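User: Good morning. I'm curious how 5-O-phosphono-beta-D-ribofuranosylamine would be positioned relative to this chain. Could you predict the structure with it bound?
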Amino acid sequence: MTRKRVGILISGRGSNMQALIKAARADDYPGQIALVLSSRPDAGGLAAAAAQGVATAVVDQARFGRDREAFDAEIHRVLTTAGIEFVCLAGFMRILTAGFVRRWEGRLINIHPSLLPAFRGLKPQAQALAAGVSVSGCTVHHVVPDLDAGPSIAQAVVPVLPGDTEESLSARILEAEHRLYPEALRAVLSQASPKP
Ligand code: GRF
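Assistant: Good morning! Here's the predicted structure, ligand included:
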């Protein structure tokens, strides 16, 4: 089995990244986590990745200001230099340009803490509480230029309980994310053939 070279893009603590790294250690996993790339030099996930022996890189968003094209071009360069074939966004807090998304189309996925298409964008757990829904969850989806609008790959449902706060609901959803993301990546990698 050829394991596809996967890059993970993060901006923060990287708990989903850690779940992916752990899962990819299994002998039969169809991907290897070959690079963790952070948009912030102070992302907690960088140290966690390095501690697991995974190569890391920083493309510091602060260096690029509002020039999203240049920022995305640098990310693309770092990914391709590392031979990355497939990209997972995991708490990556930058909106990627349409040009970048098209270059990675079919090889770029994200996890979002709601049952899309409900509650796209920021603070989806707070949006779910405000809407008064009785279930929420998380979605792994293909990335398209529109934010959180790509085709769903897999979803997990969690209950919203009486008395839930944004923190308690987020924690319940996060546990589900850590199970769902590795499974969804496995499924996609088993089907996807990387572009030449
Ligand atoms: C997760 O809730 C993910 O769904 C969202 O951002 C959060 C990142 O958390 N996109 P972590 O950095 O993976 O711990």
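The beta strands are 4-10, 31-38, 56-58, 86-89, 108-112, 135-142, 152-159. Helices lie at 15-23, 44-51, 68-81, 98-103, 124-131, 166-191.
Let me know if you'd like a different ligand tried.
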